[in-house]
Amino acid sequence: MKEILIPALLAGGIGLLAAVILTLASRFMGVKANETEKQLLEALPGVNCGACGYPGCEGYAKALAEGKTTATNLCVPGSDGVSRKISAILGVEFEDVVEKTAFVHCRGDCNRNKEKALYQGISSCAAAKGVFGGKGACTQGCLGYGDCAAACPVNAICMENGIAHINGNKCIGCGICVKICPNRIITLFDGTEKAAIACSNTEKGAVTRKKCDAGCIACTKCAKVCPADAITIENNLSRIDYEKCIRCGKCIEVCPVNCIVAAPIPIVNDEK
Amino acid sequence: MLKNLVIILMASVLVNNYVLSRFLGVCPFLGVSKKLDQAAGMGAAVIFVMLVATAATWPIYTYLLSPKYEYLQTIVFILVIAALVQFVEIVLKKYIPALHKSLGIYLPLITTNCAVLGVTLNNITDEYGFLESMVSSLGAGLGFLLAMVLFAGVRGKMEGADIPKAFKGIPITLIAASIVSMSFYGFASVIENMFA
User: Are A30 and B94 inside 8 Å of each other by CB?
Assistant: First the structure.
């Protein structure tokens, strides 16, 4: 009997002692988590993308809870739904979120952008750009090694035929790819635009044409057809002034190289 | 005496490296070694926990369990280490929030780390005194940190390498780990001859 009782008491006693110490410790030394902050953190999507300008969802929740910011509409991925939840928790008026989605300003895939060299280095856009601007003849377009796809927190980007494709149904508009692209050819659209220029090449038309079948040749056709004078040619590349644009879509039809396309529309997630 | 301690320290860092020679604590070794700063953070947390755990378990074994109830050591050590780590976390959160933030998620992860349990049990098996046990734990922790940091470097290199599709991810990581582990076997004779 004694052979069992003493070890059992010994192990049990140590366990009990540990439990008592832990209970006392959490009672007297525990730090109470801010309840509002906890709720806010739960309401946020938890992508930690940094679109709000704070280090992760935790940072934003903390800033809101401590009153460092009163803007409840900074979470772009969360869309209106999250903004509503945050506003309800803080008891303030709901603010509309401007949803965004990413767009790649390039259509130069493997078939269109001529290959100028065989690149066998590190499979990364940043590295490829360092070697004569990548393997494609056009050095201003998509490099095709998927730095953006690797950085995307929701796997909304896939590399297809040497160019990045953004899945509009998945993109949350956090803007991480915008910052990561070494050629800076990805921008965010907020759904108010009608057309988008799918080329980033600033070389002269003839030069561009030789390098890529889908490049903007600066023919000024779009600028001429535009009824609102919203399109200008800058650095041999069309540029749309979205302040003036009347969303008629004529430029999309007229472009001979099809490098003006319909602008992407962000998803709005307004669950209550 | 001092020479003995140095031998224990060097042996547990290099020869009996807990990850690469004894294969304890392989889970965090593979899981947290993707980035250098995370690997270093985890290593630092392990050193800390190993020292605290040894300081607690050695007296418990020597004065409470030995010599009649030695078979209880595993269950009691698990209990003590788990409770200790929780306690340390509470204390750190209250008094040193900066340290708590940097050790952060690694502390609870270590609670059930077999390397920590292994080092406390090995100290008993090797019949070390208290000071020797502490030095051995420090060495084990340093060895863990060394392995983590080295392997984080290896993995960093692998990111840029063109790896065949079948080997991508975990397979190539395991192969790399085994090569790093083999290289550590070279230390075995080094220590023996260093203090001969």
Answer: yes
Task: Band the pLDDT of A33: cuts 50, 70, 90.
Answer: low
The domain spans of chain B are: 8-186
Distance from CA of A187 to the nearest CA of B (A): 27
**pLDDT tens-digit series, residues A137-192:** 999 999 999 999 999 988 999 998 889 999 988 898 889 999 999 999 999 998 88
CB contact under 8 A, A10 and B76: yes
* pLDDT, tens digit (0-9, with 9 covering 90-100), for A177-214: 999 999 999 999 988 888 999 999 999 989 999 999 89
Q: List Cβ neighbours of B148 (8 Å cut-off, separation of 6 or more).
A: B19, B28, B29, B32, B33, B39, B40, B42, B43
* Contact at CB, A19 and B65, closer than 8 angstroms: no
Q: Which helix (H) or strand (E) holds A188?
A: strand A186-189
Query: What is the chain B residue with the closest CA to A21?
Result: B87
CB A269 within 8 A of CB A81: yes
Domains of chain A in sequence order: 35-90 (1.10.15.40), 101-262 (3.30.70.20)
Per the document, the length of chain B is 196
Chain A nearest-CA distance from B76, in A, is: 6
